[in-house]
């Protein structure tokens, strides 16, 4: 799974950190998740605690999108076989499927091929009727991969607005409040297009707190955000989008454009949403691996958010406390966290939140007199989908030996250009697309002092 793993695993601590990453990513893969939560007994389909008689439907289709959507579709085909009559999913990680069409899009910024694939997806939703069972595959990355510009909004306008939002430091709730109100699919509109079909969604969550309306911008979930909320986000982060974007949001706020469907909308009368995997899925597997290796595991939180470099400082401080006092856990220990940190971009370099987290952590380790030059604390941080920011790296692996030139590391952070710095230090973790997208995974290994 991890490129050049043998070189990266140059110490026992590094090896443990990499093993935890691998276990977490593998645990969240759709082939495992679907097998655990979906079952077929005769013609009865069980999804979590709900059951559906397949004989009651004229057709079963798979619709959706996201980084892991094709893997979910393939897992459903393996289970249901020719009971699936068709469908469309849009992803940037395609796999072979027999009955569901896989269309490719791009992430994190929407593209023309994503628009084309989403058009096919919406046409398939329009064709559904009350005798259709829709298995909706909703995974992280769906907001970018399923662009459906609404009204007069062009793809270029959507791209520039997305770029500005991603660089602003806004959190995913704020970003998606805007994206939902610029889309013909997001914010519950896919459910409205497929109604009155029965919709059973399998959601792999990459959102802190599992807010259904935020995961992939909630295409089959009720939306409580408003056009006013979207305008407030743009104002809060001083984003100046194209005029056509502002015009649509202002017309929506004035009641001239219909709001996204809310909880009382009839579109959701036959919709059942199931979160089948999330950040805790990843953390629990990593925790078991750490324990198997003889380390005391401690999950700090599955909901870490905020600036990546600041979160790194806190994580290192806890690891230092573990080594110094045995609080909150005795070493050797592995501290684990999930969630989604952000980066407020001020430079024009290359990197991602997990790479900035790792670089900031490496600086903290280099500045600690009691551990300078040691590998007593090892830090790994990755995005579980294998794509951190807009780079080909999942994240990075660092310890007290990583930073030799403190000024070079500081300059890389200041310029938001940590990718080349980490590459020069042999610290990047490369996996390629993993098929998993359950947010970030951070592993901090604290050895005995």
From TrEMBL:
<keyword id="KW-0808">Transferase</keyword>
<dbReference type="Pfam" id="PF13660">
    <property type="entry name" value="DUF4147"/>
</dbReference>
<dbReference type="Pfam" id="PF05161">
    <property type="entry name" value="MOFRL"/>
</dbReference>
<keyword id="KW-0418">Kinase</keyword>
<feature type="domain" description="MOFRL-associated">
    <location>
        <begin position="17"/>
        <end position="249"/>
    </location>
</feature>
<dbReference type="InterPro" id="IPR007835">
    <property type="entry name" value="MOFRL"/>
</dbReference>
<dbReference type="InterPro" id="IPR037035">
    <property type="entry name" value="GK-like_C_sf"/>
</dbReference>
<dbReference type="GO" id="GO:0016301">
    <property type="term" value="F:kinase activity"/>
</dbReference>
<feature type="domain" description="MOFRL">
    <location>
        <begin position="334"/>
        <end position="440"/>
    </location>
</feature>
<dbReference type="InterPro" id="IPR038614">
    <property type="entry name" value="GK_N_sf"/>
</dbReference>
<dbReference type="InterPro" id="IPR025286">
    <property type="entry name" value="MOFRL_assoc_dom"/>
</dbReference>
<protein>
    <submittedName>
        <fullName>Glycerate kinase</fullName>
    </submittedName>
</protein>
<dbReference type="InterPro" id="IPR039760">
    <property type="entry name" value="MOFRL_protein"/>
</dbReference>
């Amino acid at each position: 799974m991890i490129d050049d793993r043998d070189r990266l695993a140059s110490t026992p601590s590094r090896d443990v950190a990499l093993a935890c990453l691998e276990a977490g990513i593998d645990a969240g893969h759709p082939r495992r998740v679907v097998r655990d939560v979906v079952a077929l007994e005769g013609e009865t389909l069980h999804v979590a605690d709900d059951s559906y008689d397949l004989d009651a439907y004229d057709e079963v289709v798979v619709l959706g999108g996201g980084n892991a959507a094709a893997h979910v579709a393939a897992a459903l085909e393996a289970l249901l076989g020719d009971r699936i009559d068709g469908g469309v999913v849009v992803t940037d990680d395609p796999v072979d499927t027999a009955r569901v069409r896989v269309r490719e899009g791009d992430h994190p910024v929407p593209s023309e091929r994503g628009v084309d694939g989403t058009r096919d997806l919406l046409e398939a939703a329009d064709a559904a009727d009350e005798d259709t069972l829709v298995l909706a595959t909703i995974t992280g990355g769906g907001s970018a991969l399923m662009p459906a510009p609404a009204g007069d909004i062009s793809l270029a306008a959507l791209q520039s607005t997305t770029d500005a939002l991603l660089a602003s430091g806004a959190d995913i709730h704020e970003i998606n409040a805007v994206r939902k109100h610029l889309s013909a699919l997001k914010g519950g509109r896919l459910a409205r297009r497929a109604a009155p079909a029965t919709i059973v969604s399998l959601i792999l969550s990459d959102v802190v707190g599992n807010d259904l309306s935020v995961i992939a911008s909630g295409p089959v979930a009720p939306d409580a955000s408003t056009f006013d909320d979207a305008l407030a986000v743009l104002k809060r982060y001083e984003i100046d989008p194209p005029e056509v974007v502002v015009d649509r949001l202002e017309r929506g706020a004035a009641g001239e454009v219909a709001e996204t469907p809310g909880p009382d909308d009839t579109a959701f009368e036959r919709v059942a949403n199931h979160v089948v995997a999330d950040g805790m899925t990843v953390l629990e597997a990593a925790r078991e691996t750490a324990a198997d290796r003889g380390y005391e595991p401690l999950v700090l939180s599955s909901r870490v958010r905020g600036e990546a470099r600041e979160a790194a400082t806190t994580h290192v401080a806890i690891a230092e406390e573990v080594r110094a006092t045995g609080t909150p856990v005795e070493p050797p220990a592995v501290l684990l966290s999930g969630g989604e940190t952000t980066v407020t971009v001020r430079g024009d370099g290359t990197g991602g939140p997990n790479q900035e987290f790792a670089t900031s952590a490496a600086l903290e380790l280099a500045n600690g007199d009691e551990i300078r030059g040691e590998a007593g604390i090892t830090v790994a941080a990755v995005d579980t989908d294998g794509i951190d920011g807009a780079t080909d790296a999942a994240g990075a692996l660092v310890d007290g030996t990583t930073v030799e030139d403190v000024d070079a590391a500081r300059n890389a952070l200041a310029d938001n250009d940590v990718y080349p710095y980490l590459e020069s230090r042999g610290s990047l973790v490369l996996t390629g697309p993993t098929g998993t997208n359950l947010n970030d995974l951070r592993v901090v290994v604290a050895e005995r002092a």
